[in-house]
Amino acid sequence: MTVLNPYLNFRGQAREAMEFYASVLGGTPTFSTFGEFGMNQDPAEADQVMHSMLQTPGGMTLMAADVPAQMEYQPGTNVHISLSGDDVDELRGYFDGLAAGGTVVEPFVAAPWGDTFGMLIDPFGIRWLVNAAGQPA
Fold this sequence. Notes:
It comes from Ruania alkalisoli. The chain is an alpha/beta fold. The protein is built from 2 helices and 8 strands; from the N terminus they run βαββββαβββ. The protein folds into 2 domains: 7-66, 2,3-Dihydroxybiphenyl 1,2-Dioxygenase, domain 1 (Roll), CATH 3.10.180.10; 80-132, 2,3-Dihydroxybiphenyl 1,2-Dioxygenase, domain 1.
């Protein structure tokens, strides 16, 4: 089985972001720092996150890291994370939690294709698509 996991990059906010995602999605994130592995070129970055992983009770996996100063970092609109399933209430809870302190782009409401769908930008600038499958007619 092949698994596709989102991997997010931040500039000094990976720990805070992953703790936020854990508070919304559940689970406990793990963290490895650059300093633990002697991978920091700048001593000021020793405590930054080299790798983090969050595995949620619902089976989702999210990974993240801080990008060191010597590497290019351009946050933008090229990444969206999609949450989908058939439990509208569960997905509404995720949507509301992720939107707290962020921006709702499209509210989580009935969509023309029969699902419940919404789009948001979380407090860390990450774009989310949330879709709850409609009930068969």
